[in-house]
Amino acid sequence: MKDILKRKRTIIWDFNGTLLNDTQLCIDCMNILLEERGLPFLDVSRYREIFTFPVRDYYVQLGFDFNKEPFEIPAHQFIDLYRERLKSAPLQANVENLLQYFREKGFSQIILSAMEQNFLEEVLMLKGITGYFDIVAGIRDHLAEGKAEMAKEIFQHHDPDKDDYILIGDTIHDYEVAAELGIECILVAHGHHSFERLNKLGCVVLEKLEQLKTKIK
Question: What is the DSSP-derived secondary structure letter of residue 34?
């Protein structure tokens, strides 16, 4: 892939892990659920190696037994814990400056998130960055089954030239969404997946968001 991705006009941002620094929050909330079930605790290294979409598969890897309880029980317990503690999760370093930079460059910016729509809008307001985005798209429920269909709906309404779009994320799933849409992707290894996992995909992988200024023109 070229070092500098030209002709881009629209950035599709993932939110959790990419713009929002919520990795430790997710680990802390999950460890509460694991302790209640007598399962081994999770640390950052293991989390970044096993977190995946659909999230049900991640719960299975952690040892949850869905013969004993339905997936919806721990999934909703996690969301409740996460929402209670969300104010403690900051944005990633220099996020607002970066969003302002791309706005001044004339880019349209979209949020595409596995967070439920109303909750996503609430969080963006809380963090003070709603105004940077032309479209805010979250999922329709809390169980985070994927984002590709949402993105396709956005594209149906905007008739895009796909060469103008790039997706910025932090997970393998973000790469898969970009591939399904037929657009380019850059991943940042400061969120929910390790650099080693991301680097196997063959796209540009950065360590810091600030490096995007040298990659997108």
Answer: H
